[in-house]
Specification:
The chain is an alpha/beta fold. Helices cover 46% and strands 16% of the residues. The protein has twelve helices and ten strands. The chain has a six-stranded mixed beta sheet with strand order 1-2-3-5-7-10, sandwiched between helices. The protein has a four-stranded mixed beta sheet with strand order 4-6-8-9. α5 packs across α6, α6 crosses α7 and α10 packs antiparallel against α11. The protein is globular and about 65 Å long. It starts with a helix and ends in a 9-residue tail after the last helix. The relative contact order is 0.11.
Length: 272
């Protein structure tokens, strides 16, 4: 990273943003003493960072990970237990903005990767579920143990989890509150790959670099096509693709991709 880029990278409380490769942004939850729990300061930083990235056309992929031994231990619920007499309306007024703040990553048009380097629990797992792709370091623990704390799931967990693992596995995890290890997470489709901890960060970065080299317009349209479980039916998929594919065929990137294939070289896509 150049000195100029370092100087212009914003500073966020309990959150780091860096650009380890062209087109790649990495957001690191940085409050390891609290196992990267979602503090008020971190939440405010997260909203600002996502807003900044949403308008940055140089970004082609975003990686989310955690500092230290945890990915994210979830919401900082100490304020809930400290208000035993709070009304439902008061609590809801606090929770809805919190949910929307962290789920704002779904607004990004570029692919997002959750690099689950350690425990992803409760709202922390919901954040990973809100990303397009999830990879886990071996030994990571993942779960939504809300019922074991006496509370209903939050942050769209009852929507996101079935969307990723299917209703049967989602019922198992949500109703038992049990936490699974990385190998079981891979088996049930909660994560796509498990990698050794010693090489985890580098392997995820290599994947992010690879994604960053794909054609931006085609990638954005593909992300939209796959959102929320994809199309409702077969005909909807055909109708979407019959519009989206011609949009990409009319781009300069398509011509570059064809030339690169013929010349047996890597394409240099420009997003136009």
């Amino acid at each position: 990273m150049s000195e100029e880029r370092r100087e212009t990278t914003p500073e966020y409380a309990h959150l780091r943003l860096d650009r380890p490769a062209d087109g790649v942004v990495r957001l690191t939850l940085d409050n390891p003493d609290m196992r990267n729990a979602m503090s008020e300061e971190m939440t405010a930083s997260w909203v600002r960072a996502i807003d900044d990235l949403a308008g940055d056309r140089s970004v082609r992929v975003v990686v989310v990970t955690g500092e230290g031994s945890a990915f994210c231990s979830g919401g900082d619920t100490s304020w809930i237990s400290s208000e035993p007499d709070a009304s439902v309306d008061h609590l809801r007024a606090r929770m809805v903005p919190f949910y929307r703040a962290w789920l704002s990553i779904r607004r990004l048009e570029v692919p997002t990767i959750a690099a689950v380097n350690g425990h992803a629990i409760g709202a922390g797992l919901c954040l990973a579920l809100a990303c397009d792709i999830r990879y886990a370091a071996r030994g990571a623990k993942l779960g939504v143990p809300f019922v074991r704390l006496g509370m209903h799931a939050g942050m769209a967990g009852t929507y996101l989890l079935p969307n990723v693992v299917g209703p049967a596995h989602a019922r198992d995890l949500l109703l038992t509150g049990r936490v699974v290890d990385s190998d079981e997470a891979l088996r049930i489709g909660l994560v796509s790959r498990v990698m050794e901890g010693s090489t985890f960060a580098d392997e995820v970065l290599d994947i992010a670099r690879d994604i960053a080299t794909t054609a931006p317009i085609a990638t954005r349209l593909t992300k939209i096509a796959l959102a929320d479980g994809g199309h409702g039916d077969f005909e909807s998929a055909l109708q979407w693709e019959s519009l989206a594919q011609p949009m990409t065929l009319a781009t300069s990137d398509l011509q570059e991709g064809v030339r690169a294939s013929r010349e047996k070289r890597a394409p240099a896509f420009q997003g136009r």
